[in-house]
Amino acid sequence: MKGWLKGKVILNVVVLVCAIYVILPTVLKLGPEDRLPLLHKERVRLGLDLQGGTHLLLEVKSEEAVYSVLERLKNELKDAMKKKEVYALSVERSKDRVYVQLLNEEMSKPFDDLLKEDFPSLRVMGQQKKADDSLVLELSLLPEEEREVKEMAVEQALETIRNRVDQLGVLEPEIARQGQDRILVQLPGIKDPERAKAIIGKTAMLEFKLVDEEHSLEEALSGKVPEGSVLLYGTVRDRETGRVKKVPYLLKEPTLLTGDALSDARVAFDQFNRPYISLKFTSWGAKEFERITGENVGKRLAIILDGTVYSAPVIRERISGGRAVIEGDFTLEEARDLAVVLRAGALPAPVSVLEERTVGPSLGKDLVDKGFRAIVLGVLLVLAFMVLYYRWAGLIADLALVLNVLLVLAIMVLIKATLTLPGVAGLALTVGMSVDANILIFERIKEELKGGRPFWTAVDLGYSRALVTILDAQITTLIAAAVLFQFGTGPIRGFAVTLTLGILTNLFTAIVMTKTVFDLLRQGYRVKELKI
Fold first, then answer.
1. What is the pTM of this model?
2. How confident is the model over 309-364, as pLDDT tens digits?
3. Within a 10 A sphere around the Cβ of 336, how many other Cβ atoms?
4. 269, CA 20 to 30 Å: which among 26, 155, 211, 473?
């Protein structure tokens, strides 16, 4: 046997052995708990339509993002008016409107100048003069600005949800925008929709505010919340009785720092093995946190998440190093979930669940069985046809077909791709494309034999002359598959993945593997001729 032939034989054997090794846990239906020496535990991963999971349709309340932007602009407007000495009796927000009560009409001109210079996104909708000579102005965002805020809220929510799902470790989730303000989330293998909803839908707005120790908490509880302060609550759980009690906090309204300054959030444990959240700030956030703590030594700094106060420790000294903690009566799972949403960032607006479905394992198993039965039946019919029509050459093509399917599934395991029901259809199409390439070669060989060529000369010519046609067909299909993968959603991309892998493996099995078998029969076994 010549050296080059021996190399080709070794290559094919190695590829076949590796494919069988990778796909064996799937065939034997092994799970992570199974212990077999020298055998990995990765299996072909199945999508939501095959193995079950959670389906959620979410709606982003984008108008809340508008309220949030207006609240920020309201606070900035207050500060700017103080600096420019534009006097007002009150500056308040009500939903998507900001109401400014100027001291008198003389303040309207400097106020208009202030809006034009520093707040071009705000416009005056109307004004009303009061009996005390004060002037009430109604402000709102410009229509184009409001549309942009809502659009950005949905896009940011989409990205944040995707980040949270990625950190959950869900394999091949489907996360896509639907319509103007809806997001579709499909989580294969997740059978606990409540936990998924809690993590995905949590706003996770982290804020740092100073505790207001200058005013009376009791008066605030009676309804007399001083201007510039806000009343929020935290919770404390009695470890003996398990009862949860609300604890009120009177806080200064300005937010000193938000979750945007975070770079990481991890679960850690204290000396009593109780979990807490360890926060790490960005370089900018670390400097800002150090400045805030340095300027407020001796005061209490409240850590607030989604309007709930988790802790309000006293600042003993300037805190450098860019780290802080969130302590609370967490379970380990609660701490982990909280760390996930903090790492992924806050949602720009709340989301609500419009539709929820859990695909059960019985439905998933039924779909898997039907899909694979269809593949097996299709493969058997093609195998039988090739042997009946092309005799011994057909048997060689059948070997290539089996190796092709094994290679596709093995590569999907290695790259951790997910097999969906459309992907099963792509796998079935791969079966047809695999034999199609060999049919082109065999028909070309038959033409050469009719022209009087010797058998092995006809084989060589058949492969060389059919190669261009095979490459043309495979490459054009590969381009179509690439387009489907780039612009398609989950099911379409699942089809494109298996189709792409099938095309690439088909080029190896139809051209390299079958030609190696022919060369082995000629050089190694001195076969004169085969029935074709």
1. 0.59
2. 988 989 989 998 888 888 877 788 888 888 888 887 888 888 988 988 776 655 55
3. 17
4. 211
Which tokens go with 368? 């898997």
Which residues fall within 8 angstroms of residue 312, CB to CB, at 6 or more apart?
211, 234, 249, 300, 301, 302, 303
Q: Where are the beta strands (DSSP E) in 81-132?
A: 88-94, 97-102, 122-129
Total length of the chain: 532
84-138, pLDDT tens digit by residue? 999 999 999 998 999 999 999 999 999 999 999 999 999 999 999 988 889 999 9
pLDDT in tens, 449-470: 898 889 889 998 999 988 888 8
Cβ-Cβ contacts under 8 Å for 311 (sequence gap 6 or more): 234, 302, 303, 326, 327, 328
Measured in degrees and rounded to the nearest 5, phi and psi for residue 283 equal: -60, -40
* Cα–Cα dist 269/276, whole Å: 6
**What is the spatial distance between Cα 135 and Cα 402, in angstroms, rounded to a whole number?**
83
User: How far is it, in rounded angstroms, from Cα 6 to Cα 295?
Assistant: 77
- The type of residue at 271 is Q
The answer for residues whose C-beta is within 8 angstroms of residue 294's C-beta and 6 or more apart is: 318
Torsions phi, psi of 31, nearest 5? Answer: -110, 175
pLDDT tens string 187-230: 877 767 787 888 888 888 889 999 999 999 999 999 899 988 99
Cα(493)–Cα(506) distance, integer angstroms: 19
Residue entry with tokens 């959670």? 54
φ and ψ at 47, to 5 degrees?
-75, 180
3-state SS, residue 209: strand
Confidence (pLDDT) at 144: 94
Give me the domains of the chain, ranges plus CATH numbers: 3-51+361-524 (1.20.1640.10), 63-146 (3.30.1360.100), 202-358 (3.30.1360.200)
